[in-house]
Structures are given as structure tokens and as C-alpha cells.
Write a structure and sequence with these properties.
Elements (H helix, E strand, L loop, with lengths): L27 E3 L4 E3 L1 E3 H8 L3 H9 L5 E3 L5 E4 H7 L8
Antiparallel strand pairs: 1-2, 3-5, 4-5
The protein binds zinc ion (ZN).
């Protein structure tokens, strides 16, 4: 009788992204949260959520999370709503 064996390889990875430059002022007013929140750029949002910028824009179009426009016309994403939408955990504030 032929004997077979099965080997399971489990690989765990961890990603740690530090945003030491947060676009927009910390404490930018978010009308949806009715609070001062941190706002980040689309690029930062995509990196943090590990999705494409296209996916972030698509989610914005579907009102998945909050956003505002800076004085220079740059789109800024409400960090709190982004974290909630993508179920991300914040390590610190
Ligand atoms: Zn918000």
C-alpha cells in the first residue's frame, strides 16, 4: 500500500505602515463625523488599505467613507471612516 503524506505550509505576514506625513491638517473638520479628524490623501488611503487608488475612488463614489477637498483642490479622505470601512486597526493616534 502506498503511503502519502501531506505537508501544510502556513505563511504569516505583517505589514506596518507609518504615516509620518499626514496630508491636510490633523483636526480637519469632517461634516459626516461632526468632529475634527485626520485627513489623508488618496495615495495614503490606498497604501493604508492595501488597495488601488482606483478602488479608493470607487469607494468614494459609493459614499463608503467621508472626504473633503483641501483649499488647493486636493481630495482628502477621513481617516476614521476609511479605517472603519476597511476594518483596519489603528495602533496609535
Ligand atoms: Zn469622517
Amino acid at each position: 500500500m502506498k503511503k502519502t503524506s501531506r505537508t501544510t505550509i502556513t505563511r504569516e505576514t505583517e505589514r506596518f505602515l507609518v504615516l509620518n506625513h499626514v496630508s491636510g491638517a490633523a483636526g480637519t473638520w469632517c461634516a459626516e463625523c461632526a468632529a475634527a479628524v485626520k485627513m489623508i490623501s488618496i495615495v495614503e488611503a490606498a497604501l493604508l488599505a492595501e488597495v488601488s487608488q482606483r478602488a479608493v475612488f470607487h469607494a468614494l463614489e459609493n459614499s463608503a467613507f467621508h472626504f473633503t477637498e483641501s483649499e488647493r483642490g486636493t481630495l482628502l479622505v477621513c481617516l476614521d471612516s476609511l479605517m472603519n470601512y476597511y476594518n483596519l486597526q489603528r495602533l496609535c493616534r
